[in-house]
Amino acid sequence: METEANLITLSLELNGQPHRCDIEPGSSLADCLRDSLRMTSVHLGCEHGVCGACNVIVDGKVVRSCLTLAAGCEGSAVTTLEGLADAPAQAMKQAFRRHHALQCGFCTPGMMVTACAMQAEAAEWCQRSEDEVRSHLAGNVCRCTGYQGIVAAVREGLAAVTDSVPEVTA
Known about the structure:
Elements: E1 8-14, E2 17-23, H1 29-36, E3 55-58, E4 61-64, E5 77-79, H2 87-98, H3 108-119, H4 122-125, H5 130-137, H6 148-163
Parallel strand pairs: 1-5
Antiparallel strand pairs: 1-2, 3-4, 3-5
Helix pairs in contact: 2-3, 2-6, 3-6, 5-6
C-alpha cells in the first residue's frame, strides 16, 4: 500500500529570485535544484561529494549540493551556473572558451561555480601560483582536459577581475 510522502515547503532565493517548492524532508539540494527547480547545470556525478560537478554557491560559500540537505537551505541565497551572469562571471566564461577548458562539459558547471566564487576574492587569488590554483580546484574532477586549460582559464578570469578593481592606497 503506497502512502503519500510528507512533503515540506522550501523557500529560498535562487539566482536572485524567490522560489518555493515542495520537497521530501531528506532531499538533497542537488535533487531539489534539478528536479523541482529545473536547474540542469547542477550535474550529479559521484553523489559522494568527491567530483565537484554539483557545486553551487549557498550564502556565498561553494557547497557540494549532492551532500547538502535542501531543507537546511531554507531562506538561503543559492546560485547555480545559470545565475552567474555578472561581468566577472562572463570574463571567466570567455576565458574557459579561449583556453579550451570545456571539453565534454560535464565538470564545467561545478568548475565554473568554484572559479567564479574565487573571483569574489580575486585580489587574493590573482597573486597565487599555478600550483595554488590547482590545489584549490582539486575538489573538482575533470576526466577530459588534463587541467592545463582550466587552470589557465581560471588564472585569466581572476586577472580580468583584478584589472578592473582600483588599487587602494594608504
